[in-house]
Amino acid sequence: MAATIYYNDDADLGLLSDQTVAIIGYGSQGHAHALNLRDSGIDVVVGLSEGSKSREKAEAQGLRVASVAEAAEEADIIMILTPDQVQAEVFKNEIEPHLTEGNALFFAHGFNIRFGYITAPSGVDVAMVAPKGPGHTVRREFEAGRGVPALVAVEVDASGNAKNRALAYAKGLGATRAGVIETTFTEETESDLFGEQAVLCGGTSQLVQYGFETLTEAGYQPEIAYFEVLHELKLIVDLMIEGGIAKQRWSISDTAEFGDYVSGPRVISPEVKENMKAVLSDIQDGTFAKRFMEDQAAGGTEFKKLRAKGEAHPIEKTGRELRKLFSWNKAEDDYTEGNVA
Ligand code: NAD
Ligand code: MG
Ligand code: MG
Ligand code: MG
Ligand code: MG
Ligand code: MG
Fold first, then answer.
1. How far is ligand 2, taken at its centre, from the CA of residue 254, in Å?
2. What CATH code would you report for 193-323?
3. Cα 277 to Cα 198: distance, rounded to the nearest angstrom
4. Using CA positions, which residue lies closest to atom 41 of ligand 1?
5. CA distances from 131 to 185, 199, 290 (A)
6. Whose CA is nearest to atom 15 of ligand 1?
7. What percent of the chain has pLDDT over 70?
8. ipTM of the complex
9. CA 306 to chain centre
10. What are the domain boundaries of the chain?
11. N or C, which end of the chain has less CB nearby within 10 Å?
């Protein structure tokens, strides 16, 4: 295997024993990082803006909360876990003025460094610890004695010890229990954006919507269509995670497996791969980043319009009704705590 993978024995939590870690933001990733590091014995301070609704929640969970500027001032390691689109602003106004030589600036995604929205002053380590899972899973797995795999990368090694600091942080998160893969900011950023746009989020959402539309437009009941193209997706994906596409194909009926071979390439035809290459190219040359950031700067007009259009798709209404019937579906429709991609 080409990739370098680190485990518990490769990381020394002791490197953080005299350090304070500031977690900026308390959303999906923020709450998981703060709680896992705290439970690993590390001194944590959560940095939030004065009016933040998360203040109460973080304090109730026994964490120390300060303003972003105070947290950045006090800490040796500052992990920025606000949404990507506000990081540059928060950095410029509330973090950069408090960075001193020997500090480390950490990220869970390389977007702002890769596309040049943030540049750290000299003397400061810049590294990434990016869990490959939603924050709520990062917390749940840690509590269960396991961990979510993560990526580590070093952009600037000012201290000569940046990678070891990142590995120690990853250990505090529980990630070295599962395995931590070494990468670069460029590789992580571009591959993460590509994965979520082409396959995980963009590709899958569109595939499910087209499947639902095709069935309902042909007169099939929406409830049946929902089960066939959305609900069962999780069961299929679980098999893929356990044993690859091969295990998924082994587990399904021969009828389904044959249909997979003959119809998969008809639906996802070779031109889809050409489209994927165009998406990757827009990521690599900064076209996507620019479009996202310019829209955000203008109040997120395009973003809000696209979100409203997605929410108005008939599959959402059908799903809301049906999910009420699943007594085991405790998560309900509570996806208000943050993104997962
Ligand atoms: P989120 O939207 O869930 O939470 C953001 C937090 O930042 C909230 O607590 C919010 O109150 C706070 N915040 C927003 N604006 C702020 C400001 N101006 N000043 C201070 N705090 C502010 O974010 P997230 O999804 O956890 O993403 C954080 C980072 O982690 C991003 O870089 C993202 O790409 C990365 N990441 C996320 C996931 C995930 O599962 N969500 C996975 C891997 C990496
Ligand atoms: Mg990702
Ligand atoms: Mg079926
Ligand atoms: Mg089979
Ligand atoms: Mg969100
Ligand atoms: Mg992402």
1. 33
2. 1.10.1040.10
3. 9
4. 340
5. 14, 19, 25
6. 82
7. 95
8. 0.94
9. 20
10. 5-183, 193-323
11. N
